[in-house]
Amino acid sequence: MMKFFYNAAPNPMKVALLLEELGLPYEAVPVDTRRGEQFAERFLAVNPNAKVPALQDGETTLFDSNAILLWLAERERRFVPLEAGSAERAQALAWLMFIASGIGPFSGQSVHFRHAAPQPQEYALNRYDYEAHRHWTVIEKHLAGRDFMLGADYGIVDMAFWGWARLLPYVLGTGDATWERYPNVKRLLDTVSARPAAQRAEALRTRHAFKAEMDEDAKRFMFPQNERLKKG
């Protein structure tokens, strides 16, 4: 049986959604990053980058959420265009990588500098807030007149989108007003969230009591780069 290493963050949740959509048996293995479990040797053997999600299927191990989505979808021949060289596959790869290289990183940095940076960082927050909005505006415009990211068909690009879109008001710090600016994003988010597989994926978060406190130990595990700022 596959082992799925996860926590409740956006990237693991999109893989959880695909696993539930595929109906594949898997063991959910919690990795509590605020307790530093991502640095345990047993987990580093699966993902030397010390990040979730990761997947172990027999002798095969994968990390990076978008790589896992693509690998599973291709293996199961579902939720992704399979014809090499086709226009449909080109679009799937382009939008999947757009989310991987743009939506995820800029949304994540917007969260960090808005909610977690140890000091107010006006320049950094301005940069990442701007880029997060810019990337989400690309998605918003793209979804006009489309049911899903690739048109009429639901697939892994929508799952990758869903992982981050669920938290967009928190990412942007705009609360309920977020959806006035991004109504097409909200429409697709609601469509995916209504799927039974999405509801099962969300329920996965309740199986384990992940640490909620961002105390000094959690900050040390989550932001190890800050140790370099200490003098002495």
Structural class: alpha+beta
CATH class of the largest domain: Mainly Alpha
Q: Can you tell me the CATH architecture of the largest domain?
A: Up-down Bundle
Could you say how many structural domains there are in total?
A: 2
Give the spatial strand order of the biggest sheet: 2-1-3-4
Span from first to last CA? 49 Å
How helical, in percent, are the residues?
40-55%
Shape: globular
Tally of DSSP β-strands = 4
Strand fraction band? 5-15%
Give me the Rg, rounded: 18 Å
Main β-sheet, in a few words?
4 strands, mixed
Order of helices and strands: EHEHEEHHHHHHHHH
Oligomer status: single chain
Give the CATH topology of the largest domain.
Glutathione S-transferase Yfyf (Class Pi), Chain A, domain 2
Number of helices: 11
Q: Which stretches are poorly predicted, pLDDT < 50 over at least 5 residues?
A: none
